Amino acid sequence: MNKLKYSLSNNSDKELKKVCSLLSKVFKKKFSFQYIKWLYTQNPEGKAITCNIFYKNKIVGHYAIIPTKIKINSKIYNSGLSLNTAVDDDFKGKGFFKIMASKTYKQSIKKGIKFIYGVSNYHSTRLFEKYFNFKNLGPLDVKIGFGKNDTISKKKIKIFWNKKSFIWRLKKPNIKYNILSSKKKLEINYSFLKLFKINMGEFENNFLIQKKNYNNKIFNFLNIHIGIGKDFEKKTLYFNLPKFLKPSPLNFIVKDFSKNSSIKIFISPAI
User: Fold this and answer.
1) Which one of 103, 145, 191, 255 is most buried, by most CB atoms within 10 A?
2) What is the value of pTM for the model shown?
């Protein structure tokens, strides 16, 4: 395989189209160019840090870090979401993941990123732990139930959103968002199979902007909340989704580059 080429991506349209082809092939579902361009190049926190492996002008390996920010005890840190690890079936078993992750992490450190986090299945979790000393915080809670929840998160560590990143998030292609507003916060959901509402997160009321691409809903029939330690009011009816219905363990993993031993990692749901 001396024709393999390893390189950090410039996120050009030409490369992103090839990335879409690989992701669609590996994950057996359609990845649109519009979505990948939005995710990789339009994020106000910065362009995606990605590594591609080429073989005969075709991308056969891909890995990405999406810049984000997290808030720990009132302090904001640059961080990154580990996403879209993909290797063509014809090239598996050649150590591509270790090569791609090493390159992206080195570049991430250069750009001032202090934490890398992600959600991984059982097999991927073992690789992240073995090669890069990620900490596995355990599987995400998946709760299903009725009604909206006005409880404000008490977690000291969570994803930090500002108005620019919030607006960008709501521009995700082919998604129609629902806003459940209360005096305390905004809760953002989006539809799944026209019956369920997937909870995206909780935000400050001052993030509410002109409603152009989403609806204002007072009540959702059935909601799904995914995260670690989600708080619910006692009056609401929510229960854990049975394990046999989950597609994978959904392990939440974190790597700390901050060198701050006083920080105890416990992070709320990602993008």
Assistant:
1) 255
2) 0.81
